[in-house]
Specification:
The complex is a heterotrimer of chains A (70), B (711) and C (145). With 70 residues, chain A is mainly alpha-helical. Chain A is built from 3 helices and no strands. Chain A has one domain. In chain A, helix 2 runs antiparallel to helix 3. The radius of gyration of chain C is 15 Å and the shape is globular. The termini of chain C are far apart. Classes of the chains: A mainly alpha (70), B alpha/beta (711), C mainly alpha (145). Chains in contact: A-B, B-C.
Chain lengths: 70, 711, 145
Amino acid sequence: MNPILQAVVVAKQQVSDIEVRYPTYHTELVNTLVEVIQKQSEGLSDQKRRTEVSQLLDAFGSTVASKQGR
Amino acid sequence: MQLKYAEFHNFKLLENVRLEFSTNRSLPLTVIRAENGSGKTSVLWALLWGFYGTRGLPAGAHELRLTSSAAPIDAPVDIQVIVEFERDDGHGKTAYRMIRTVQETPRGGDRFERGPVKVRLLRRTPAGLVDVDGDPEAVVAKFLPPRLKSIFFTDGDDVQRFISGESIHGRQNRVHEAIRALLGLDSLGVARDDVENVVAKLRRETAKSAGSDLESAEKHLSEITEAIATKTTELDALTERRSRIASEKAAIQKELNEVRGIGNIDEINAEIKSREGELARLESAEDAILTSMRIAINSQDASWALASESLLSGYDILNGLADRRIIPGTSIEVLTDRLDIGTCICGTDISDGQSARAHVETLRSEQRKVSESRSRQTQTFHAARMGRATYQGQLEDRTDFAHRRTELLTQYAENRDAIKNAGLRIEVLKEKRAGIDEERVRTLASRLENAERKLTDVSESIGRLEGSLADLEDRAKLATDAYEKAERASKVNQTLRTKRLVAEDLKTLISNTLSVLESQYVERVSTRMNDMFMEVVGSDPELAGAVFRRVCLSDGFDIMVHTIGDGHLDPDFEVNGASQRALTLSFIWALMEVSGQTAPRIIDTPLGMTAGGVKQRMVEAITRPPSESDPPFQVVLLLTRSELRDIETLLEQRAGATQTLSSNKDYPVDLTHDWKVEYPVIRACACNIRQFCDVCQRRYDDEHGLIARGG
Amino acid sequence: MAEIVTPYTSQDLFLTRAFDDEFANQLVSRSVDGRQPFPRKIDVWWVAIVVGAAIGHRSRLPASDKLTKFNTGAILGREPWRVTNLELLALASEGEDIISKPSDVVRIGHEYAMTGLDWLADKVRGSSQPTITLMTALAEILPPK
């Protein structure tokens, strides 16, 4: 099995330990995880990749914040 | 990923060699038949160089020249390696071609000049071959992670690296790394670090925007986190060190036991001392016997014994005179004594007044009147009487000189024998002791003590560090709580806070996923490795005499070998070469299967040290075609003719491609035909394992039943 | 019983020079250990006499330049039984009257000793263990049991 797929399967189980901030939080968290991993296959330098991951999380964080109504 | 073919130009002796690899799913094996010195290592290195450059070569070979040592000086040589391979990237198969070129000019001896290396990675598209986007080396590194090259390209002895090496810690790390890399866990690790980076960044931003309280709480937390990282690195180093010392200690102990096995030196010394004491006593006894002999020789007993005839004869003359009353039968002294006592020798009362007394007195006065010479004769007679009586008595009870002599000579001989035996025994013991080499035992014992001390020290340091770390972790928790409290207390931007919490959630998710995956994989690899190993070494745990019960990967990423009876063996030095090879190959195969990795497995001389059943089963296990549901794989074996022996049929059944490599350096000793080339070179030919041709024929090929290949 | 010894105190006692030169060191030693069979030269002389008597042969004395005087009869005071035995040997050789002629008794002793010294020399020559060698060799001249 594709290693990423493997990771997703397990992540889906493990995510239940995390606090549900809003109904679809878990699914979105796992998706973000996949996106973060995929950044590694874009041939970017470490610096660039971290910046992009940061942007990714920034965007997701904002979404979460607005969904939580704050 | 599957190799299709490789071309080598001027790489060492590989002047112009092309190798084809089998891409047939049901015939995953490619056999390259080559004797030692015929290019097996060169092929391996050429592939490594082709993919990774000089960094891909084994340690120690990075600085080596790539041109043949027979290449003329000052003449530039174009070295090139081309590898064509195929890869399934999820959207179907893509063909690639890797081309690495460099110009090298030998300058005499080991010196050379090398120009810049040109690397191209081309992808086959409908429009033809196209350079890939990005750095070709980076792309290849993704297909074949350099860290794992020893898994993909394995030389027979290299195969040991997962189970032997300077320390258990080192081995565990290599195994851990291999698992991570192959099972894609690497990327999770990297992802986690990337996210952690974001968490730290968000904390700093939050702290800055919220004011000094939060800032200092953040700073405090950062410091603790950094301290934890530093101490963790220290701990790793110490753990590695401890493991190394423990291995050293075990080796010393083993050597000491071997030397001691000859015998306990203290016991031997004690026995030697005791025997030497015994020897000294025996030597004293000998002196005593000799002294007794001396006394005996010079004694009256000896005189009587030796000269008895003459002495008795002389005595008889005097006795005769006494009988004829020419000399008195009794001496004056005796008569005087008797008169004093008052009783005659015969018992008669001769005290004062008795009539018998006068008779004795008369006898005495008569004796006084005897002449000088008679007087002398009388003296001698009486003196001799005693000697003679003693002698007669000794003869009767066998205590005469003759008997004594025999007795003493026997004692002497027996004592001599005992001395000889004691001496021999001492020599034997001394030799035994010399075998122990006291010096060596002392040295080893002292080194052992040293190692134990170091081990204790390191363990103590580790204990302290672990204590510090636990401490720090407690403080980290407190600092985190403090931070969060400060965060809540301050009028912090809630959005920022949410972002940080989300990032932390993600980090936790990734960490947990990583550990679960690791342990799942460890278990699967472990099981698969065990199945294959037990199949190869042929141990049925139920059979009496089977040594191996089970092999597995521990949680600490250690390859463990369990024996029947619940014992276990250290795979490094308690398992024999053939089993070590089987173990490592099983581990690699298990890894590749569980991870679904399709990288090719190229192995040089995998079967050294194996024979018979193990050899058969090993080849059977590593060349078995994949089942329907398994991904395809490739295995390339570089084998000598002797490695091929006894498994020809099996190899023929599994090989989808075979070639032979030969070197003209082996002419005329082993190679039959002269290639008529003035410099050493390696050539490939299409001969399979049952054939020979003008290029590869060796002496005795026809004796081994090989047949000429037409053309 | 010094009385027994008195007639002999002024008699000279001899060994052959040859024997003395060759064997004194090998055979005579005052020290207690038994490696050498004889404590003093008188003991050599006496055992030689006894050996000569055992063999049953008296040999003529060589010229006086071939003899060496090692002591006088006074030394026999230590073991008076030797005087007695010497007289018995003399009696056995030359009859009852010999006993009033101490010099003849001593002569007879010397004649036996010459035989004995030859035998001793023959047996112990070259031996590093003369006591053992001698003890063993005596078997040849001990009367049969």
